[in-house]
Amino acid sequence: MAMVRKVLAGTLIFVLPVASVGYGLAFQAKKDCLTDTSRDLVARHVKGFTMEKAVDTADIPITSRVAWPFVVDVYYSVPWGMHAAMSRNRYTVFPWGSKKVSHKVEYSL
């Protein structure tokens, strides 16, 4: 029983600081990930339209959230008439920088 407690304590002593650093880095990188996604949308000339008007790239709403330690998800929705395509870019964040690791269309309505 004492051995199990020692292993559990050692695991907590390792995991808690690493998770804290990971969340801190992710919160700090949210703005950079938003900027990177915005630049990507501009470079790809992503535009949408509603029933009333065309939607320029600058008007596409982009939000970000911390999903896990060292992971930031950036969401955006491109309107397409009465429908929209909801997309997610996932970034991994480390002290030396961030990297987009996946792009997924969440909902294509």
Main attributes of the structure:
two-stranded antiparallel sheet, 109 residues, alpha+beta, 4-stranded antiparallel β-sheet
Characterize the overall form.
elongated
Number of domains: 1
H and E string: HEEEEEE
Strand order of the largest sheet: 3-4-5-6
Assembly classification: single chain
Portion of residues in helices?
Answer: 25-40%
Beta-strand residue fraction = 35-45%
Report the average pLDDT across residues: 89
Task: Give start-end ranges of low-pLDDT stretches.
Answer: none
Rg value:
19 Å
From the N-terminal CA to the C-terminal CA, the straight-line distance is 55 Å
Structural class determined from secondary elements: alpha+beta
Largest sheet: 4 strands, antiparallel
With helices defined by DSSP (H or I, 4 residues minimum), what is the helix count?
Answer: 1
The counted number of beta strands is: 6
Which helices and strands appear, and what pairs or packs with what?
Layout lengths: L1 H42 L4 E2 L4 E2 L6 E7 L2 E10 L2 E12 L2 E12 L1
Describe the structure.
The protein is 39% helix and 41% strand. Strands 3-4-5-6 form a 4-stranded antiparallel beta sheet, with helices on one face. Strands 1-2 form a two-stranded antiparallel sheet. It has 109 residues and is an alpha+beta fold. The chain has one domain (1-108). It has one helix at 2-43, and strands spanning 48-49, 54-55, 62-68, 71-80, 83-94, 97-108.
